[in-house]
Amino acid sequence: MERPTWAPGEVDLERPSAARVYDYYLGGYHNLAVDREFAEQAMLAMPELPLIMRTNRAFLRRSVRYLVSQGIRQFLDLGSGIPTVGNVHEIAQGAAPGSRVVYVDKDPVAVAHSQVMLDGNDNAAVLLADMRDPESVLAAEPVNALLNWSEPVGVLMFAVLHFVDDYEVAQQTVRGYLDAVPTGSYLVVSHGTHETVGERGKQVERLYTRTDNPFTPRNQAQVSRLADGLELVEPGVVYLPSWRPDSPEEVEDHPERSSTYAMVARKV
Ligand SMILES: C[S@@+](CC[C@H](N)C(=O)[O-])C[C@H]1O[C@@H](n2cnc3c(N)ncnc32)[C@H](O)[C@@H]1O
């Protein structure tokens, strides 16, 4: 197939990518036939997948606004994805102009598209890196140029830790960033779970082994333990729609349909 202009040379056009599949679910344009086919197959098992992704983006908006309301003005967004509407810098800078944001992703399409979007924005940058190596990420130029280590940071991990298959590595990754930031910083996580979907979830997990990002759902206790040593912000570790909905109309009768836990925790 012909390479689209937005797909850098290192992109394998025959293999679905988690970043581009997610872009397709959200109605974006940076996906290939192989990603769309993959996404449609996963939807045969879990037709609610696009809704889950939108619910995740809504949690991203609410939690970033919450962090801004707590005085956070700098953000490290790990596994930031292919930009879509309502990105972290738009929300943070919209609420508090001058807020600084560094995006990190290992997907070349996500990074190339972020670069285009951030052109001319002096307070936001993107880094192509594997977030499982906090030491390298924290030493990288755009991170150090924009983030001030004496001020609290919002460390954001939306829908990315379930792509780290080894639980210990997931824990070490979180700790690597939280150890480097000062007291008063926040960790925000959304993380897939298959506690209520049974065999339908297993089918999706089997499909994801075909991508560069096998999917590893975790239960509520495992997600909670990622924030060990931090202070959980109320209401704790809950399904996405139940984390501080904007209005009573947004309260869901079946929040477990999001198959994703949300949590915000503070370094004390
Ligand atoms: C489902 S998307 C989530 C995007 C965004 N955080 C959101 O919630 O809207 C997951 C993203 O994590 C990225 N990712 C997965 N593993 C990663 C790793 N080890 N380091 C950096 N990025 C990673 C993928 O490339 C993809 O863009």
UniProtKB/TrEMBL annotation:
GO MF annotation terms: methyltransferase activity
CDD domains per the UniProt record, alphabetical: AdoMet_MTases (cd02440)
Key words of the record: Methyltransferase, Transferase
UniProt record, GO biological process: methylation
Pfam families linked: Methyltransf_19 (PF04672)
Keyword Methyltransferase applies: yes
Name recorded for this polypeptide: S-adenosyl methyltransferase
Organism: Kutzneria buriramensis
